Amino acid sequence: MTRIGLLDSGLGLLGTADALFNLAPDADLVLAMDPDFTPYGSLSTDTLEQRALHSAGVLAEWEPDAIVIACNTASVQALEAVRARYEPDIPVIGTVPAVKMAAGTGQDFAIWATPATTGSEYQQNLIDSFAADLHVAKVACPGLAEAINAADLDKIDTAIEDAFTQMGPGMETVVLGCTHYGLVADRIMAARAGALTVFDSPMPVAKQTLRRIGLEPAGVGEDQTGTGRVLATFASGRRVSLPQALAAYPAGKRLLAREA
Known about the structure:
This protein is of the alpha/beta class and 260 residues long. The protein has helices at residues 13-23, 45-60, 72-86, 99-103, 115-118, 121-130, 144-149, 153-167, 185-191, 202-212, 250-256, and strands at 3-7, 28-33, 66-69, 92-93, 109-113, 136-140, 173-176, 197-199, 230-235, 238-240.
């Protein structure tokens, strides 16, 4: 039986968990969130590495076939440390914003991310590597991930409006540079009059995870019929039930239905 562990500061791992159940509906998942130390963007690199290693250690006890760092900020700052600890025994997959996919359209685009990721050398290197000939608006979204963790819809909508004002007129493509943001992609689309294309990372990350462990993805479907379950959920190392705040999001409802 395939078993995959996912870690993040909070609900940002939902999108990747949902994508994994789409592509590997019989896989079991173990989730490690870290609410005592959220938001990760406010932590020093050393502290963030320690927290990612702590969550990875919790997941490793379940002998997973792979560990996914389902968080952009943690991937930027802690991926190498977690890989050094666990590979090659356990493949470790990071999360990369879909900059390359967006650049492939040839259109200017915006990257919405946490302030820490927005100002990072890592994000700038992605832009330089894949979108050097395009105009890329770097949009910091303070408070949006936290509002999503709390399922505070008013604060979510306010943060989305603030992000659009930073983009300026005429830009019709957005890359979601924080895994939390995909949970409110429907609200982002609804808040913008006219066409808007949104690129997110969970499905590519899920496909890469399955490639690393030698599994062929199943067909993508909303019903996600399969035997896979969320075997366990942890909050800063404590065994917990899935938070009911998940019910605010379609992916969250599907995950709650999978809880063992």
